[in-house]
Design a protein that fits this description.
It is built from 7 helices and 19 strands. Helices cover 24% and strands 31% of the residues. It folds into 2 domains: 174 residues, 3-Layer(bba) Sandwich (FAD/NAD(P)-binding domain), CATH 3.50.50; 90 residues, FAD/NAD(P)-binding domain (3-Layer(bba) Sandwich). Bound molecules: flavin-adenine dinucleotide.
Length: 286
């Protein structure tokens, strides 16, 4: 039988880390899931001056966090969660073939600040997908596009190519290692997803490619694509002051709950969400 954690924290950024650290201090049986520890943004920050006791390059901040993480023994389980489902009073989280169970979930998946396409949200579930492993098989023998935000997603493109007749790969980075008989790497910047009832084409400045599916392979998928029935306000999860959502037992923290997009807010919310998850478990006597 699968182990059921008290809390599963999804997202390796500072909100997720602080939630995991707080959960540990509250003696909760926690699981911290994420693509990478501390996320991709810290290393890019030129200078961080607005976080208590920090004044220096993002990489220095990252090194200090990494040292603390090691001291505290907070382990990240590296994976990309592709679905969160509630059933029978607990949550099931899937990552390709892997699955995890938890009584509560803290969603700390951040926001994708670049690369949103026109029409992306309109065609979600009607040809637009964020997960190759979840939906790839639906496109057997079909022509599809993949908008690939970083080399980390090239494996997913190869996975898609096992099913699709043709994959147009729009790589948003310099050097791509993608190759395959039915993979065509395009050096064009996608602008829009278009169609009528379903996706029919992806449009770039140079032209349009007729496709039946568009896979947007990027770090943070919209929370609605991850958790069915989750109430959102635009790109953000709708939360109460205790960071609870409309789904009992599911909390959200950090950029995913809205602006300002700042480390201090993300860390603060990670802490509050872990306390709220504990209070929820205590209330239910779980
Ligand atoms: C260049 C740059 C400079 C910045 N400088 C500053 C600054 O100086 N001061 C400041 O206060 N803020 C700054 N920010 C903003 C700051 O980075 C964010 O507010 C902060 O990172 C938010 O933390 P978070 O944990 O909510 O989200 P993120 O840091 O975005 O972390 C979310 C993590 O979750 C992962 N994830 C998403 N979906 C999934 C999934 N399905 N499964 C597993 N993992 C998933 C992502 O890969 C990511 O690692 C800067 C941002 C950028 C881009």
């Amino acid at each position: 039988m699968e182990h059921t954690f008290d809390v599963a924290v999804v997202g390796g950024g500072i909100a997720g880390y602080t939630a995991a650290l707080t959960a540990k201090n509250l003696l909760l049986d926690y699981l911290w899931l994420g693509a990478s520890a501390f996320g991709e943004k810290l290393a890019c920050a030129e200078k961080v001056t607005n976080f208590p006791a920090v004044s220096g390059k993002g990489t220095d901040f990252l090194a200090a966090l990494e040292a603390q993480r090691e001291r505290e023994g907070i382990a990240l389980t590296p994976c990309r969660i592709d679905g969160v489902y509630a059933a029978g009073g607990k949550f099931f989280l899937t990552a390709g073939q892997k699955s995890f169970e938890a009584k509560t979930v803290i969603l700390a998946t951040g926001v994708e600040t670049k690369g949103a396409l026109k029409g992306e949200r309109d065609f979600l579930g009607r040809g637009v997908s964020y997960c190759a492993v979840c939906d790839g098989a639906l496109y057997k023998g079909k022509r599809i596009a993949a908008v690939v935000s970083s080399p980390a997603f090239e494996e997913e493109v190869h996975y898609l190519a096992r099913f699709a007749d043709m994959v147009y790969a729009f790589c948003l980075y310099e050097h791509s290692n993608l190759c395959g008989e039915n993979i065509e790497v395009r050096r064009e910047f996608p602008l829009a997803v278009e169609g009528t009832s379903r996706v029919e084409r992806i449009v770039t400045k140079e032209g349009a490619y007729p496709v039946e599916g568009v896979f947007l392979l990027k770090n943070s998928a919209p929370p609605k694509a991850l958790v069915g029935g989750l109430q959102t306000e635009g790109a953000h999860v709708k939360v109460a002051r205790d960071l609870s959502t409309n789904l009992a037992g599911l909390f959200a923290a950090g950029d995913v709950t809205g602006r300002p997009y700042q480390y201090a807010k993300a860390a603060g919310e990670g802490c509050v969400a872990a306390h709220s998850a504990k209070a929820y478990l205590d209330r239910l006597g779980k």
